[in-house]
UniProtKB/TrEMBL annotation, chain A:
Catalytic activity: butanoyl-CoA + hydrogencarbonate + ATP = (2S)-ethylmalonyl-CoA + ADP + phosphate + H(+); propanoyl-CoA + hydrogencarbonate + ATP = (S)-methylmalonyl-CoA + ADP + phosphate + H(+)
All residue ranges annotated as the CoA carboxyltransferase N-terminal domain in the record: 58-314
The protein's annotated pathway: Metabolic intermediate metabolism; propanoyl-CoA degradation; succinyl-CoA from propanoyl-CoA: step 1/3
Lineage per the UniProt record: Eukaryota, Sar, Stramenopiles, Ochrophyta, Bacillariophyta
Gene Ontology CC annotations of this record: mitochondrion
Family: Belongs to the AccD/PCCB family.
InterPro entries: AccD/PCCB, AcCoA_carboxyl_beta, ClpP/crotonase-like_dom_sf, COA_CT_C, COA_CT_N
Organism domain of life: Eukaryota
Protein's name according to its UniProt entry: Propionyl-CoA carboxylase beta chain, mitochondrial
GO MF, one annotated term: propionyl-CoA carboxylase activity
Record note on quaternary structure: The holoenzyme is a dodecamer composed of 6 PCCA/alpha subunits and 6 PCCB/beta subunits.
Species name: Cylindrotheca closterium
UniProtKB/TrEMBL annotation, chain B:
TM helices/strands, residue ranges: none
Species, as recorded: Cylindrotheca closterium
Essential cofactor(s): biotin
Keyword match Transit peptide: no
Stored Pfam families: Biotin_carb_C, Biotin_carb_N, Biotin_lipoyl, CPSase_L_D2
Keywords: ATP-binding, Biotin, Ligase, Nucleotide-binding
Protein name: Propionyl-CoA carboxylase alpha chain, mitochondrial
Length: 563, 714
């Protein structure tokens, strides 16, 4: 009687365990392949010692495993999940479900447990340790991910939690697949003390190791404070969710005690702060669902690793020889009239699709991913709509980091130039525009990917040199007939040259000489003066030729970009 | 065939008489800009006449400049310094050797001095004589002439009214209903409509006190009140006999075109016009045409012109004014009669008389079919028709092709990438449909409007679509009160549930087609149900399940959900380069506009003039979306934002000032217009956020209100 009941129960849970768990469990099948134990077990009379009966033990283990899995899948339990939903957020697992193609996620370390025995932690067990890790497909391509689970001890980072993150990054580097981190963590697990800090540092080190090997993307979907901010900070891109995420090194309470400033969480480290003021984040999205959709879109532009072959290539559905007569009309003749360079870019790239990076920061420069003839390109453009398209500290930083990402991952650079120079002023000089501007100069000079540059209107002064000029080994440089390539505008130049005498005549003379691209073309600083409507055709053509571009490497440990 | 059989001599006769190949002029300059230039150039080209365009620096890349054989810049963007700069224009005429000038409409078209100067240069003026411009240009004088010519004008009393009794007496003389109104009035203040003596006695003191109160002038006038009037106009082309001078007025040849119904107007600006009108009886048409002829002969009118009337529903008609130019809406008259009015103007000015196709037996040009014109303006019907500027991107005109007798014509002055500037009239184009019946003409027009992609500026194409689809318009009920009566506070086209269901299926189909075209793996695996959200992330959700190849099941979800419905899918043709998809469902074809997705996957779609962001979600995304919070709207109640792009001319208040609701805060100039921005609330000015002279974009914060002292508030 007893036996039958026990067996029935065990068999049921076994069946349940095998069928309901959608996660692969190698050990289950393995144990059943050991025939000797099974043979021996069946010989033992059940009445004698039920607990030590191997068959029963296995079944019992199955039951325990099943329970552990159920607990892992439920995270911090229904109550906490409801709380997470009430905040307007999704759970760690729901997020992964939306990030990956349907049913493609395969979890790692679901059962990994913390090893802390202090402050009552020894009695607390939560398989997975507050983070879900694994890999799956995004648009059919392999991607590794971790997703911190705020419902499990606030998604705090323990030694083992960190080990899971490190393992994911390690695997991603081995196979050459991007890593995407979904951050939602209360910070260090204080009960673990220095072990937790060590965990952070291990993650940081791994971030650095992976940098330039595989693309790393962080999405901040909840709190991210203190030391925790530095792992995302070292990844290639940080995105945030509006209203529900924040990032800061020290929170409002500490700020109040130290500097006596009253500031809200949102105003200190909300998405608006980091996308528009600090430049820490590269974009924000309305909510979790929208953010994850956007990540799928972004990943569709990126290579899986720094191997050139992993760059995604789509069939060319937008004709490479499509004329773009509109672009000439979009650019006003008057060098002082603004226009939106995004409109120009939109006409030239495939299907007008541009995934902008840092759209809310330094509007005077545009950075983003697009496609030309189905191949990913990084697009940089001065935008005369903001600050006349001047280079300033923020624009230099924004563009420099983007250029370096593209160069690290073999993404060709297409640059549209309309720049009147660097932004003058004490604020800029005191802020170190020299150092920051140098970053962009350095990044462009160092970049060995194909570089194609089009000057649409103004290219004045040092900023002309910086913006992927011929002198920085750009591969193809063009100017539209309306371009002006000069040290400065004609009026300013004449004032210096002629000390205010006969200004009008001299201005006209200077303008006739330099307010056109002829001199630059005669010197070979631009390869040609092109009809604006041919711009797309010519860029596509050049990029096609440049796909086999090779630059000799100069042997060095690494360069020393002016940080 | 026939012509080849004719003898050489007779062929020569016929070609010179009816197919004259000799151009009427050698070179025509159009002293205008935009679509009308291209319109005139087209005829000139057909007749072998060379063309000259003048342009301002702001228009240097405009299509009309490229369309001309020669183009000369006449000055900077401001019209006063370029298009209205008579001296410069005259110099261009001399320099280019143009022997005729077409003034178009607006600008210098009704400027008698310019006309005079042209004629004294010995250059032909493609328009009426100076005297006619002067006579008809003055509203009072034109009415006097019209009255003298025997044309019916709005009855009224010339003097002011001094007493109630006099008011009653005058009202009786005019005939009820009458309008008692302030002599200094306007805007409906101090204005009373009266249908009998009793009402006049009641209205008189009220109107008088209102007049005193609002205009500090209590003089009153009485005139006939025309109920539910229609704005109807007659196109004419007049000419002295070929080669001859006009000896007596009766010798003037007058061709009157079937009337144009131009009642659908916003703020006295015509929006939709059609020809013929549904209102006029043949008898009224004939009577009016006769008066038109009388008037033209009286003023010795030559060339093309238009006589405008108010017509009430009892077929009473009253002369309003005469426009001494070729009007914007002339293409609908051309459509129903099949002639070219610009050619007529060229012939008449060349002294050849009316071209043969204008030579008719009767008074009214024979016509057939029905034509409708919509004027597309870069203005925002949802924001009080404020002008909107910017580059047109994308801008794709509907195919201007015809099937059988029907066709769609587009007279456009713009092109993709063209920047709409604040310097000139915001009209982008005229879209004209012609068909044998009115119903068919409406269908062609709505289809054309559905395909007409205009992005980058706000525009009224959707409003036009709403007008044409309105049951009252379809019935032909189009008095001048149409827009305020049928589409007051218009907030965009609203779709019915059935239409929304069809749109949801169409969006699902388009999304699938688009993703496979761009080789973008879909969010929703094939053959799994998808959820289409109309209106964006938090919009109405429709579950769409693709059945077999030929049908889809759609069901509205949520609190106001509906029964599932099966829709037959006949075909889908998606053209990403034109941003248009033709989707045939339940055997009905519809054109749907689809813009690119943003980074979060939302794409803007438009069907039947209703436009909205749309999102395709997987079932799981939809389930999880329920937890997402609707974003907090930024509280703008303590801010004043710029209603339009423009320049901040001046502030009328300073920081710390206390202001009342409606008090003037600042002046924003846009499109040469100074717009007064008034306070939306009572409060204290906290901060002036921009300096005077700043250029503004729409919704830019101009003023922030200060935090109210709680004690004050209490």
């Amino acid at each position: 009687m007893l036996v039958r009941v026990f067996n029935k129960q065990a068999t049921n849970s076994l069946r349940k365990g095998l069928t309901t768990s959608s996660f692969r469990c190698v050990s289950v099948t393995k144990d059943y392949l050991k025939p000797t134990k099974r043979g021996f077990a069946s010989a033992v009379p059940v009445e004698d010692n039920l607990d030590s009966n191997p068959a029963m033990m296995k079944l019992k283990f199955q039951e325990r495993l099943q329970k552990e899995r159920e607990q892992a899948l439920m995270g911090g339990g229904q109550k906490r999940i409801d709380k997470q939903h009430a905040k307007g957020s999704l759970t760690a697992r729901e997020r992964l479900e939306l990030l990956f193609d349907k049913d493609s996620f395969q979890e790692m370390d679901q059962l990994k447990a913390h090893r802390c025995t202090e402050f009552g932690m020894e009695s607390k067990n939560f398989p997975g340790d507050g983070i879900v890790t694994g890999h799956g497909l995004v648009n059919g391509r392999h991607v590794y991910a971790f997703s911190q689970d705020f419902t499990v001890v606030g998604g705090t980072l323990s030694e083992t939690h960190a080990q899971k993150m490190v393992k994911v990054m390690e695997m991603a580097m081995r196979v050459g697949a991007p890593v995407i981190g979904l951050n939602d963590s209360g910070g260090a697990r204080i009960q673990e003390g220095v072990d937790s800090l060590a965990g952070y540092a291990d993650v940081f080190q791994k971030n650095v190791d992976a940098s330039g090997v595989v693309p790393q993307i962080s999405v901040i979907m909840g709190p991210c404070a203190g030391g925790a901010v530095y792992s995302p900070a070292m990844t290639d891109f940080i995105f945030m969710v509006e209203d529900t995420s924040y990032m800061f090194v020290t929170g409002p309470k500490v700020v109040k005690t130290v500097t006596n400033e009253d500031v809200t969480t949102e105003d200190l480290g909300g998405s608006k702060v980091h996308t528009a003021k600090s430049g820490v984040a590269h974009g924000d999205f309305a909510n979790d669902v929208a953010a994850l959709r956007a990540m799928r879109r972004l990943l569709d532009f990126l290579p899986s690793s720094n191997e050139k072959e992993t760059l995604p290539v789509k069939e060319a559905t937008d004709p490479a020889d499509r004329l773009v007569p509109e672009v000439e009309r979009l650019v006003p003749d008057d060098p002082n009239s603004p226009y939106n360079m995004k409109d120009v870019i939109g006409q030239i790239v495939d299907h007008g699709e541009l995934f902008e990076i840092q759209p809310d920061m330094a509007g005077n420069i545009i950075t983003g991913f697009a496609r030309m003839e189905g191949h990913t390109v990084g697009v940089i453009g001065n935008n005369p709509l903001t600050l006349a398209g001047c280079l300033d500290i923020n624009a230099s930083n924004k563009a420099a980091r983007f250029v370096r990402f593209c160069d690290a991952f073999n993404i060709p650079l297409v640059t549209f130039v309309d720049v009147p120079g660097f932004l003058p002023g004490t604020e800029q000089e005191f802020g170190g525009i020299i150092r920051h501007g140098a970053k962009l100069l350095f990044a462009y000079s160092e970049a060995s990917v194909p570089k194609v540059t089009v000057i649409t209107r103004k290219a004045y002064g040092g900023a002309y040199d910086v913006m992927a000029s011929k002198h920085l080994r750009a591969d193809a440089n063009y100017a539209w007939p309306g371009a002006e390539i000069a040290v400065m505008g004609a009026k300013g130049a004449t004032e210096i040259l002629f000390h205010g005498e006969d200004l009008e005549a001299h201005t006209a003379e200077y303008a006739a000489r330099f307010a056109n691209p002829m001199v630059a073309a005669q010197r070979g600083f631009v390869d040609d003066i092109i009809d604006p409507q041919d711009t797309r055709r010519i860029i596509c053509n050049d990029l096609r030729v440049l796909r086999t571009k090779k630059m000799p490497e100069i042997k060095k440990k690494h360069s020393n970009i002016p940080l | 065939m026939l012509r080849s059989q004719l003898s050489k001599a007779s062929r020569k006769y016929w070609t010179s008489r009816f197919f004259s190949t000799e151009p009427p002029f050698s070179k025509v300059l159009v002293s205008n800009r935009g679509e009308i230039c291209q319109r005139v150039f087209r005829t000139c080209k057909e007749l072998g006449v060379k063309t000259v365009a003048i342009y301002s620096t702001a228009d240097s890349k405009a299509p009309f400049v490229k369309a001309a054989d020669e183009a000369v810049c006449v000055g900077p963007a401001a019209a006063g310094k370029s298009y209205l700069n008579v001296e410069r224009v005259l110099q261009v005429i001399r320099d280019t050797g143009a022997d005729a000038v077409h003034p178009g409409y607006g600008f210098l078209s009704e400027n008698a001095n310019f006309c005079q100067s042209i004629e004294s240069e010995g250059v032909a003026w493609l328009g009426p004589p100076v005297s006619a411009i002067q006579d008809m240009g003055d509203k009072i004088r034109s009415k006097e002439i019209a009255e003298a010519a025997g044309v019916s004008i709005i009855p009224g009393y010339d003097g002011t009214i001094d007493s109630i009794d006099q008011c009653v007496e005058v009202s009786n003389q005019i005939g009820y209903p009458v309008l008692v109104k302030a002599a200094a009035g306007g805007g409906g203040k101090g204005m009373r409509t009266c249908y009998n003596d009793q009402e006049v006695r009641e209205a008189y003191p009220m109107a008088k006190s209102e007049a005193k109160q609002f205009f500090s002038d209590d003089r009153l006038l009485v005139e006939k009140f025309i109920e539910n009037p229609h704005h109807i106009e007659f196109q004419v082309l007049c000419s002295p006999p070929a080669g001859g001078k006009l000896e007596k007025p009766e010798d003037l040849q007058v061709v009157v075109f079937p009337e144009r119904e131009c009642s659908i107007q916003r703020r006295n600006q015509k929006v939709v016009e059609e020809s013929p009108s549904c209102l006029l009886t043949d008898e009224t048409r004939q009577k009016m045409a006769e008066q038109v002829k009388m008037l033209c002969q009286k003023v010795g009118y030559v060339s093309a012109g238009t006589v405008e009337w108010l017509v009430d529903e009892e077929q009473n008609f009253y002369f309003l004014e005469m426009n001494t130019r070729l009007q914007v809406e002339h293409p609908i008259s051309e459509a129903v009669t099949g002639v070219d009015l610009v050619k007529g103007m060229l012939w008449v000015a060349a002294g050849r008389g009316l071209p043969p196709e204008f030579q008719i037996d009767g008074l009214i040009m024979p016509s057939k079919g029905h034509a409708i014109e919509c004027r597309i303006y870069a203005e925002d019907p949802l924001r009080g028709y404020l002008p909107s500027t910017g580059p047109l991107l994308p801008y794709i005109e509907p195919h201007a092709t015809g099937e059988g007798e029907s066709y769609l014509r587009l007279d456009s002055g713009v092109i993709q990438g063209h920047a709409v500037t604040p310097f000139y009239d915001p009209m982008l184009s005229k879209i004209i449909s012609y068909a044998p019946t009115r119903r068919e003409a409406i269908d062609i027009m709505t289809k054309g409007l559905d395909e007409y992609v205009i992005e980058g500026v706000q525009h009224n194409a959707r409003l036009c679509n709403a007008v044409l689809r309105h049951p009252a318009f379809v019935k032909g009920e189009t008095p001048t009160s149409f827009l305020p009566r049928h589409l007051p506070d218009w907030a965009g086209v609203q779709l019915t549930l059935a239409q929304e269901e069809e749109l949801a299926v169409a969006v699902a189909l388009i999304g699938m087609t688009r993703d496979s075209f761009l080789q973008r793996p879909t969010v929703v695996p094939s053959f799994e149900p998808m959820v289409v959200r109309l209106g964006g992330f938090f919009g109405d959700a429709f579950r769409v399940t693709m059945g077999d190849e030929k049908s889809a099941i759609v069901q509205k979800l949520g609190d106001d959900g509906a029964e599932a419905r099966t829709i037959l899918v006949n075909s889908i043709k998606y053209d990403p380069t034109r941003f248009t998809a033709s989707v045939s469902m339940d055997r009905e074809m519809r054109s749907i506009q689809v813009m690119n997705e943003d980074s979060e996957g939302e794409m803007k779609v438009q069907m039947y003039g209703a436009d909205m962001p749309c999102l395709i979600q997987s079932e799981r995304e939809y389930q999880l979306s329920q937890y997402m919070h609707v974003p907090k709207m930024v509280d703008t109640s303590d801010m004043v934002m710029s209603p339009m792009p423009g320049t901040l001319i001046s502030f009328s208040v300073s920081e710390g000032d206390h202001v009342e609701i409606g008090q003037e805060l600042c002046i924003v100039e846009a499109m040469k217009m100074q717009n007064i921005v008034r306070s939306p609330r009572t409060g204290t000015i906290g901060k002036l956020s921009v300096p005077e002279g700043a250029s503004l974009v729409t919704d830019q914060i101009i003023i922030e209100f200060g935090v109210e002292e709680t004690e004050e508030a209490a």
